[in-house]
């Protein structure tokens, strides 16, 4: 199977060029927000770092908060999915490893900090809550599939999500050691065993 | 049994008056750090709020960081102990409820924020790490007693501590709901059951 889109001229992919520009701007925003904080980054630097003209940034995001929120949501996209290989233990371990990797990035740290109630704007807090909602929804879907197949007893997926991701946040935020795949294996192992052992019989 | 110290004159309790002054200063510092952040609080306000002369603050803590650190450690004292009633489940639930209560205070939130690597001073980070060390030590001692009595299989107490307190930090930091005693019961129940179920036989 050949890549049928690779050599198409830009004219046949409406929005293609602008989509790439937008992606570069969002990536640059994420980097600068990580470095300078949500209040500190500047449009001039975003444009320079993305290799676009400043007017491209202003035209696409006249509102500064919209730009931050979209950069945050894009970043979170990667962290809000849970794969379904049919093995709930393995999929949750992969999820935790990805979560730890994301939280360890400068942007992840900035997001964690923004979560603390230190006067972030309502818009940013809303974006964070949308990120969490997506993650909760992805977890709900994956856990429902596992329950359906008899891999797990019926369980509150939000609770399961908090149980496994709480230790990841704690270890990464403390910053005294890395959260490894072995940690993820151990956390998921204990939580799934505990959920199975405490499930009501019947 | 009567209180034999209550009516002794100050002269017979060396340091008594100064100890009270120090306690008031530390309490005032904790409050102001919670309100204004570690970098923002002022000695004048500490003195005023503690009802002491400014020179009392300077005399006891010529170094500003020492004052913050001592206020932090004093606060953490309450959160660094795990009772031993002989029932490990109950004692861990009580620990989590106290932890959640502490993290929900303005000072607790300030501490959580200081934990994030956003350029806190080395001294403050050291104090935080001493707080964590104390908590880890308290947990180790309590878990060792439970293992000794056959309440738990041999287990890494630091891991157990992260497993139960991770969800507390996560829920409190998100700030979308309270962490209740029912939450604590559920968390401890699943973690202890999971640790028992995954323990190597023998």
From TrEMBL, chains A, B:
The terms under GO molecular function for this entry are: DNA-binding transcription factor activity; transcription cis-regulatory region binding
Q: Which residue range or ranges hold the HTH tetR-type domain?
A: 19-79
The keyword Signal appears for this protein: no
- Name one matching Pfam family: TetR_N
Question: Its domain of life?
Answer: Bacteria
Q: Which SUPFAM superfamilies match?
A: Homeodomain-like, Tetracyclin repressor-like, C-terminal domain
Q: What is this protein called?
A: AcrR family transcriptional regulator
Give the matching PROSITE patterns: HTH_TETR_2
Q: Which InterPro entries match?
A: Homeodomain-like_sf, HTH-type_TetR-like_transc_reg, HTH_TetR, Tet_transcr_reg_TetR-rel_C_sf, TetR_C
Positions of the DNA-binding region: 42-61
Q: Kindly state which keywords UniProt assigns to this record, in alphabetical order.
A: DNA-binding, Transcription, Transcription regulation
